[in-house]
## 1
Amino acid sequence: MSYSKTFICLACSRKPDGRCVAGKELVNGAFGGWIRPVTPGGHSAVTNDQRKYPNGYSAVVLDYVTAEFTKQETGGFQSENHLILEPSQWKLAGKEKQTKQFLAKLVDAPASLWTNTCTDSLKGLNDRVSVLKLTQQIDTLYLIPVTDLIVHVEFIDEKRKVRGEFVYNGVQYRLKITDPKFEQLFDKAGKFDVSIEYLTISLGEPFEGFAYKLIAAVF
């Protein structure tokens, strides 16, 4: 039997074969925990068609989305995952316009962005967690306040690679940015200082022995 959930979309990030959609659930007028709609398969990505509304538009950040699900996924370490009903039946329940004041009420306060004891990737900094440490389900999504972001942009084989460097609770991070709208702001290589307000941070699925910390949305 399927069940319905309504959530405020706080990430609609780039992912192989589609998007990683996530947000905080709206229950009786109050916001609860995170939810990440997923599909069966290796990357669990939600396709553009699956996040489409009856009017032809697709779910984006700061939409209130109502979706149908079949069950909570319990096989991996991401505690927020719910399998979407197929064919998908997403509905637009509204849009949030008061970004700064609204997001301030949804901020999370983790002591750190998971463990920072693993080796860094080649161009990242405190950007991954060994899968050997991910033996049970944990929170893998956070909305955190960040005011200063250094954006690193490079082009490799004509493909744009964007990373964001910031400090959270005294620890420096340099993570891949997978927010497609934000990525498109940068059309040349370089290092750029950007004033922002909030980041959605996601701990992604395992890849070659590590789960990578990603900047899934920039506000």
Note: The radius of gyration is 17 Å.
## 2
Amino acid sequence: MERSEKTGTPDRRVVSIFGRSEVGTAVIDAWTTVCFEGLLPNRLKEICRIRISEAHHCGYCSTVRSRVAQQEGLTESMIAELWDADSSDKFTPREKAALRFATKFKESDDAIDDDAVIDDLREHFTEEEIIELGTMCALTDGLGKFTKAMNVVTWAEACELNPALRERGQTAAS
């Protein structure tokens, strides 16, 4: 709970659910390690997390925010441009490459099984960073689907909290 309060994600709602199980607690520990340790900045990992979360309409994951990423400069105006990041001037070339990868990762099981996708990453990331980014995307996709199923925050509730999600959600669906 202390790490959750400090970082802002996952927040106490999800920690209290996962904390009912020894394995769930281990998953939260792993999640926190992947999000807030390693080589990549949290801001980069957070934009990928949000992009994937909005793509599968997880109300909880789409509305919770990392305090660490906010301290690293992530703003809601940047988040509003995640779906058109390649043409935005708010993201670095590394962040754009990471978002392209996250988009492909969420797109289908085979979308990242392409040399061009990995070559794009290699222009901006080391092998170790690619592993970290892939692990982040995998955890986000899998845990996000499970969290969505728990209805901690429904998509409809999330859209009430943040009306911009409705429009971005329609973009994700198309």
Note: The radius of gyration is 15 Å.
## 3
Amino acid sequence: MSETQTGGCQCGAVRYAFNGPVPPAYACHCGECKKQSASAFSMSIPFTYDGLTVTGTPKILETTAHSGKRKYNYFCGKCGTRLWHSGTNPPTAITLKVGTLDHSADITPVGHLWVSKKQTGIMLDPETDQHQTQPDDVVAWRSNLGQ
């Protein structure tokens, strides 16, 4: 039997659940991720939207990624918590924000993107996969994390 993982926004208006282990996480140190997380980096896990059971209705902010592609940012309309991103609307492949999981304390990133933009003083495990910017095929890189 699969273990159920749960998460959601700060105020509880949007909640989600999925079955199975948490996929390997990665950290992004780009300027956009720093702003959306209000921190030194953002941690995400690649996931499929169809794998989530969502209660509540997230709002969507459409932006343009550094690549020039459209990015859809899903967040709680009441408290503003960023929940996941997708390159499509409706979402298909998503990057779920690790900090929104109810139990995320033991999640360590296995890879890092945009290390060239890393905040001074943040030390990275030299055993992790690190990219100064990002791989040419970031989707393939995400799907191979932890292998």
Note: The chain has a mean pLDDT of 90.
